[in-house]
Amino acid sequence: MLERINALLKEVEDFAAQTKEQVEEYRIKWLSKKGEVTALFDDFKSVPNELKKEVGQQLNLLKTKAQEKINAQKEHFDAEQPTSDSSADHTLPGFPTLKTGSRHPLTIIKNEILEIFLRIGFTVSDGAEIEDDWHNFTALNTPQNHPARDMQDTFYVNLNPEMVLRTQTSSVQVHLMQQQKPPIRTISPGRVYRNEAISARAHCQFHQVEGLYIDEKVSFADLKQTLLYFAKEMFGADTQIRLRPSYFPFTEPSAEMDISCTICKGKGCNVCKHTGWVEILGCGMVDPQVLINCGIDEKKHKGFAFGMGIERIAMLKYQVKDLRLFFENDVRFLNQFTSA
Ligand code: DAH
Question: Tens digit of pLDDT for each residue in 174-211?
Fold first, then answer.
């Protein structure tokens, strides 16, 4: 009996099927009810007791090996199966399980703004959202107890009066002026936070793009031309701008810029509250004290700065009436926006 078992073990070891059918043929030959291994198990009853242990072990080994061999050969042919399946239609479209997403409308507008300024030699720079009080306020001419702090309701980090969630991307200006030598010509997009009640027109988080240009001869005329160029590129060639005197602690003089209403072209409608104009950004000539705070020679250098809300531009461009839609991420809203 041992001899038969060992002979079969050798056969199993040497077995390499040529076809899938052959695997099945050998499974039947060895392991089916009438197979050789099954027959050996039947014969096992007649093995004398003193040999049972040794024969039993070999027999079990044979069964395991045969089963393993059959499984391995089967897997081998199954894996090959798809390529040889001539009934597959390779021209059928794939399953639409993976839908391509689209860019968020705020990202689309941000990219558009960046591209416009990149075309006229601005670089793009970045800053941290958790900022120290000095960079967010003090260096920008807004020390503790300055009334202008009331313009922006601030979130303090862990109630630490020194650390804030930045309320404006103007903080990036300060870092850049500390780190780089003029000329500096850069725009800084990013998220900002203010402790405001959430409504259709205000949110506790939103996005801004800050612009800064520092060089030896920079004038208010440069600022105006740059912003006019931006407005025309962003809202169309027939767009007009107007600058109204305003106040920001870090610019002198300061202004707010309006564009002619994109909806009624200046005739008067609900969007422009029948004035023909809509405000889109704040700007001005960098206050010499800010240059001093940031280590720039204020006698040699001048600069202009501007800051705008990305949501505001997006609302105007896309006629979105509720700011909250940008943060709810309802796909029915998001699906409407496409970008190149
Ligand atoms: N940081 C201002 C704000 O959040 C916007 C701003 C106004 C930025 C004038 C500027 C500027 O750079 O010159 O309201």
Answer: 999 999 999 999 999 999 999 999 999 899 999 999 99
How far is Cα 140 from Cα 290, in angstroms, rounded to an integer? 6
Do 143 and 26 have their domain in common? no
* Residue 197, φ and ψ in degrees, nearest 5: -65, 135
Calculate ∠ Cα 287-293-296, nearest 5°: 80
In a domain, 92, yes or no: no
Residue 251 CB less than 6 A away from ligand 1:
yes
Rounded to the nearest angstrom, the distance between the alpha carbon of 211 and the centre of ligand 1 is: 9
Rounded CA gap, 59 and 53, in Å? 10
d(CA 281, CA 246): 11
- d(C-alpha 330, C-alpha 337), whole Å: 12
Examine the domain organization and report whether 188 and 238 are in the same domain: yes
Rounded to whole angstroms, the Cα distance separating 143 from 149 reads 8
Using CA atoms, how far apart are residues 229 and 212, in angstroms rounded to an integer? 16
pLDDT in tens, 2-11: 888 999 999 9
Atom 8 (ligand 1) nearest CA: 307
Could you tell me if the CB of 309 is within 6 A of ligand 1?
Answer: no
Same domain (yes/no): 67, 162? no
Contacts of 216 by beta carbon, 8 Å cutoff, 6+ apart:
182, 183, 300, 301, 302
pTM of the model: 0.73
> Which one, of 221, 217, 186, lies nearest residue 301 by Cα?
217
From 248, 254, 304, the mutation candidate for ligand 1 (largest count of ligand atoms within 8 A of CB) is: 248
Instruction: Please say whether the beta carbons of 204 and 196 come within 8 A.
Output: yes
Q: Which domain holds residue 28?
A: 2-78
Beta strands in the chain, from DSSP E residues, in sequence order:
123-124, 130-132, 163-165, 184-193, 205-215, 241-248, 251-260, 277-286, 302-309
